[in-house]
Design a protein that fits this description.
Layout lengths: L2 E7 L4 E7 L6 E5 L12 H7 L3 E5 L18 H15 L4 E6 L2 H11 L4 E7 L10 H4 L19 H8 L1 H9 L2 H8 L42 H14 L2 H5 L4 H8 L8 E10 L14 H6 E9 L5 H4 L1 H15 L7
Parallel strand pairs: 3-4, 3-5, 5-6, 6-7, 7-8
Antiparallel strand pairs: 1-2, 2-4
Helix pairs in contact: 2-3, 5-6, 7-8
Length: about 350
């Protein structure tokens, strides 16, 4: 299925996006996270288009060929939700199926909780739903304190989030010192042998950076389970061009995101069909043995859960599993939306 490139410009924002499938079909919109791009969904776009959907994947604000901005506040969730609503309006559709991963998941959860009338249903990978807002205040109480004693890891596996607040410039500089190596170092498959051990993200503040005192990524081989060489070059080129100020700024808006969550409909409870894909070997968003997914189960009235044998970069590492889970859920919940 052919994938094409498009741009939508409004008075407030420009979104670049990839598209596949019949333009008149129901949109299914894929929302990437940190530090990804629209190409993060390269395996999903043709598959969903072949099933009869109009499959769309934008570069989010701060990334790729979409607009970026100069202040941290410009990367609060509320702004990205507006970007996505403008994209949906541009597509000429009232509603879409929304799919998110990493920071894209809170965007999609926020769309569902603030604008349910624009959603057929929502599916998210790795990051569960918090009706009171996606912020450490709300997910730290569900951390596994057996693995992450509070005295040693105050922010549990999310110590890296605290490091952004502690020294944003240093964190950003570590990724920008060698972007090509940063991409290779970050995009790695899940490791079953690491289960029960602290995530590397829990050590960032202790090590004074993602990559230790040198503050530059090591030169490691590409992980072919996640990236091809062409994918690596595409990520490297885009992140070299835009830098990491925008991507990293998504972590600097916890208070704003909490305030935004107070404006949800129905107290944040989602009545629409929802799908959540757990990463069996995702140790930052660890939902297998911790209580991290508990609030989502209370706040989603029609929740389907699937475990994928994958690390964090699920859509790229295990695309067949992800596509199969999406297809089964779509067939079960939205048979009338399929183009026959």
């Amino acid at each position: 299925m052919h994938v094409t490139e498009h741009v939508v410009r409004t008075a407030r924002h420009t979104s670049f996006y990839l598209a596949a499938g019949n333009p008149a079909a129901t949109p299914i919109i894929f929302v990437h996270g940190w530090p990804e791009l629209s190409i993060s969904w390269r395996h999903q776009l043709p598959a969903m288009a072949a099933l009869g959907f109009r499959a769309i994947a934008p570069d989010m604000r701060g990334y790729g060929r979409s607009s970026t901005y100069a202040t941290h506040a410009d990367f609060a969730l509320e702004h990205s939700v507006r970007d996505m609503l403008e994209l949906l309006d541009h597509l000429g559709a009232e509603r879409a199926v929304w799919v998110g991963h990493d920071w894209g998941a809170p965007v999609v959860w926020s769309l569902a909780s603030h604008h349910p009338e624009r959603c057929h249903g929502v599916a998210n990978l790795c990051v569960p739903y918090y009706a009171r807002g996606f912020a450490p205040k709300n997910f730290l109480p569900y951390a596994d304190r057996t693995l992450y004693p509070e005295a040693e890891y105050p922010w549990a596996q999310w110590e890296y989030m605290a490091f952004y607040e502690q020294d944003f410039a240093h964190a950003r500089a570590g990724f920008e010192a060698d972007v090509a190596n940063s991409v290779k170092a970050m995009f790695r498959r899940g490791n079953p042998a690491a289960a029960g051990m602290p995530s590397r993200t829990a050590l960032v503040r202790r090590n004074k950076g993602w990559f230790g005192p040198a503050n530059t990524a090591p030169d490691v081989p590409i992980d072919p389970e996640v990236l091809t060489e062409a994918d690596w070059h595409a990520y490297t080129a885009a992140l070299t061009r835009t830098g990491f100020f925008g991507p990293d700024s998504w972590y600097m808006n916890h208070d704003a995101n909490l305030a935004y969550a107070t404006q949800t409909r129905n107290g944040g409870r989602l009545a629409m069909p929802t799908l959540f894909l757990h990463g069996a070997y995702d140790y930052t968003c660890e939902t297998m043995t911790s209580r991290l997914a508990e609030p989502m189960r209370a706040d989603c009235a029609d929740l389907t859960e699937v475990v994928v044998p994958s690390g964090h970069w699920m859509a790229q590492e295990k695309p067949r599993h992800v596509n199969a889970a999406l297809a089964r859920w779509l067939a079960a919940k939205f048979p009338a939306l399929w183009v026959r």
